[in-house]
Specification:
By secondary structure, the protein is an alpha/beta fold. It contains 12 helices and 18 strands. It has 2 domains: 136 residues, Cytidine Deaminase, domain 2 (3-Layer(aba) Sandwich), CATH 3.40.140.10; 216 residues, Dihydrofolate Reductase, subunit A (3-Layer(aba) Sandwich), CATH 3.40.430. It is 29% helix and 23% strand. The strands form 4 sheets. The protein has a 9-stranded mixed beta sheet, sandwiched between helices. Helix 3 runs parallel beside helix 4.
Length: 368
């Protein structure tokens, strides 16, 4: 029988394997699995890009007959429902594993404890409760989608020391240095989608892709534009058939523009309008309905302010450069309409460190 320390070590290995799939497996969670017998790792698996095959059958295939009597360490409760693939519980039972260790239950209503129950009914010992905080962190986007119907939102703001993202003339390249920009590409890769507002799409003509990292599966590129008044000769339009572009718009968007964007390969999602702008919750629910679990928002200021005002930012990433631009520069945030400091969104510091010539600071929404 493994000790608690051994269980933690192998479970953390399963969690680390699962993290490799972040941004690649939606709408499924990024799960890792390790098959262990007599202290030796016989098989490893992680959810494949696109969400299939799952981690457990891949790890079992590596272990082969060695899986009989072994322990399976899985970073989330094994699935128990028939989807496009058979349940992972069936694979674990058929392989003859003696024990399954997982941190916590799946919140998907199709699983939600049924996987653990099926394993126990088959005579397999099930242990839970270790590494719960790490698992909740890793699966936060998947849980948020299954419980609230929307993805986890990371808002990234790269700005000058005085909170500006461009000069009064719009000059903005580059405020932060190469190390910060490379980290942004890594963060994009770990999210299902990169999201910007229409103003940013018009002003910067961004590609919103992950570059110089050997990535095969790019994140979905999402633009929030009520009227679809975006340039049809942009980088996004020219590459929409190669890398997905989703446009969230209002029901009053010009039908001719809808047809034009669909013609270049973009996917259109109609969302509710509130106060003359697209309702941010409606936008996120539409993205969640399409399967997205983790969204990386890169502005601009109006979209960032709308998300903050609606209390829809789960993680705030700041990249601050040692340059000052002044009050005439473009602020990183649009108006929040605050009368009192007590009304201001407040986050809890998670991490801060020097990043080349810049400072990285990461803040989380306070836990309830």
């Amino acid at each position: 029988m493994a000790t608690e320390a051994e269980d933690r070590r192998f479970l953390r290995l399963a969690l680390s394997l699962g993290r490799r799939g972040m941004g690649q497996t939606w709408p499924n969670p990024a799960v890792g699995c390790v098959i262990v017998k007599d202290g030796r790792v016989l098989g490893r698996g992680t959810t494949a890009p696109g969400g299939r095959p799952h981690a457990e059958p891949q790890a079992l295939a590596q272990a082969g007959e060695g899986a009989r009597g072994a322990t399976a360490y899985v970073s989330l409760e094994p699935c128990a429902h028939h989807g496009q693939t058979p349940p992972c519980t069936d694979a674990l039972i058929a392989a003859g594993v003696a024990r399954v260790v997982a941190p916590l239950a799946d919140t998907d209503a199709r699983v939600a404890g049924q996987g653990f129950a099926a394993l126990r009914e088959a005579g397999i010992e099930v242990s839970t409760g270790l590494c719960v905080d790490e698992a909740e962190e890793d699966h936060a986007g998947f849980f948020m989608r299954t419980e609230l119907g929307r993805p986890f939102v990371t808002l990234k703001l790269a700005s000058s020391f005085d909170g500006r993202i461009a000069t009064a003339t719009g000059d903005s390249q580059w405020i932060t240095g190469p190390q910060a920009r490379r980290l942004v590409h890594m963060m994009r890769h770990r999210h299902d989608a990169v999201m910007v507002g229409a103003g940013t799409a018009r002003a910067d003509d961004p590609s919103l892709t992950v570059r110089d990292m050997g990535v095969e599966r790019q994140p979905v590129r999402v633009v929030i534009s009520r009227r679809l008044d975006l340039p049809l000769m942009s980088n996004l339009a020219r590459t929409a058939k190669e890398v997905p572009v989703w446009l969230c718009h209002g029901s009053d968007a010009d039908p001719a523009l809808r047809e034009a964007w669909e013609g270049v390969g973009a996917r259109l999602l109609s969302c509710d309008v509130s106060g003359g702008q697209l309702d941010p919750l409606s936008v996120l629910q539409a993205l969640g309905n399409e399967g997205l679990t983790r969204v990386f928002c890169e502005g601009g200021g109006a979209l960032a302010a709308a998300l903050l005002n609606a209390d829809l930012v789960d993680r705030l990433v700041g990249m601050t450069a040692g340059v000052t631009i002044g009050a005439e520069g473009l602020p990183s945030l649009g108006a929040l309409g605050l009368a009192r400091l007590a009304e201001a969104p407040r986050f809890t510091l998670r991490e801060s460190r020097v990043l080349g010539g810049d400072v990285l600071h990461v803040w989380d929404r306070p836990r309830a």
